[in-house]
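Per reviewer request, we include the raw input and output of the structure prediction for the construct analysed in the revised manuscript.
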Amino acid sequence: MKKSVWILGAGASKGHSNENFPSINEFFLKAKNENFLISNEGFSDLKKYINKNFGVNISDGVKLDIEKVMTAINIDMRRNKNLKFQNIKKSLLRLIRKVLNISTKASPENCSEYHDLKEVLKRNDYNDTVITFNWDLLLDNIWDRKKILKQVENNNTSDMPDNYYRRFILGESGYYLSTFGGLSVDPPYRNYNNKSGSYLKLHGSIDWLYCQNESCVRYSTVIPTLDYHEPPYYCSECHEKMEYLIIPPVLNKDFNHYPFIRKMWNKAAKEIQSVDELIIWGYSLPPTDFYSEWLIRQSRGSLEKLILINPDIDLKSFRKKFKSIFKNEENEVEFDYYKELPKYIES
């Protein structure tokens, strides 16, 4: 049976939310419109940093690539160990969480595209894999995130719906440690064989908590939380303060600092190495995200068809980026293009 892998970018959530979700260039504009950048919100150092390095005042509601801002902050952190830059980065991540939180709450109830995706995946018994670079919870909520987390917190996992989010919670997250599966260790393997689909959030999530204590048993995993907008939280194992795990799409992702993220990327690479059909929705392959390009390249040799769902498919520069990845392939890859998900479903 042929297996497909979906890769979702910010355009997928933007399309699902009827354009309510910000693109990578609209985070600061959204923050300004929601009054997050007023003086008492604690973003003054972030505003000064952006004004100095990019020559714009984000309080004016400008469009600015958040990837470039995060890349600049990361470079400064490596050049200078001053805590100032670490605090600026924390401020930016806090702003990202606030923007995505309010965008999730404000999304119309009749949003349909992730529901449509759910039905497409359900027809294949959830055997396809979904990889997302998004931090938001729109797709998680489609798969009963709140219900599943409430059941886990109440130690009631008997009647959970069988979907991608359940598999993630009971098979990948820190809650896995409390299941029967978490008490055993699978033997090493020679050939990767995952017949069921997985849900892999490669850049983290606004509701993921992780323990920074490397000696703690929870260090190498994440704990999703229902009330992610009400910090702080403390590790129930070592009692140290927990942090939110969001990985920006920057040049150097520091995977070694986050074992769980490293595990997710390793698994995503294994999934893609043997895929027949790759469907990329709402992702435009930004120039700073070399890791994501590397990931897509793992499909060279096995891929038969690449489906691109994006409003920019008519641009030669957009198509060229993806075609260059499969240049000089021994088996020619078939390309299909759709401007939006409904057009793909109708085909």
